[in-house]
Please model this.
Amino acid sequence: MIEVKNLGLNDSLFNQMMAEVRDVEVQQDRMRFRRNLERVGEIMAYEISKTLEYESKEVVTPLGVKVVRVLKEQPVLATILRAGLPLHTGMLSMFDRADNAFVAAYRKYDKDDDSEIRVEYFSAPDLNDRVLILCDPLLATGESLVKTIDGLLGDDMKPKHIHIAVAVASSEGLTHLKRKMSRKPVTLWVGSVDDELTARAYVVPGLGDAGDLAFGEKHI
Model:
């Protein structure tokens, strides 16, 4: 069963960042939009870090030795190109020694306005017995995340745990993810759960097209 951690339910600066990520006026500044997503990723990385395994290490200072608790093993950070890059950058600034994985996935529409998720590229290290953290700004239908995880793991990869970090999720996408990932060790970290999902898979109120807002509108 998936464990859901909704960081937006508690008052904190995290909600200030989420407010700016959604705000149509603030979104006009691409650099600010990317930076806000990075900050969301940084806070989520910090929260996820509390669940990881640690070990004691002696650190030599100019005046002596101090025993501190440090990460026992670095996680693998994964994201879906291109919209996930700012969130991934924020995660990587915290887990700065982590291994990384990248996936190219997109929604393809036909002439009847029907769509399907296509996943065409994977780049990842060995994920066996590793902690995998997959970040993406939006969880809409949930299909792209499910296909991404299935593609990364294949038939034989068995990670120690999977953390999924999204800024905004739809209720429908969350339900789909719970159904498809019920047999895997998964924790979902989310900034907000929104109720509405349109016929074209837009989350409402959501935050818009994160890829376009961060990097400019696409035409192909």
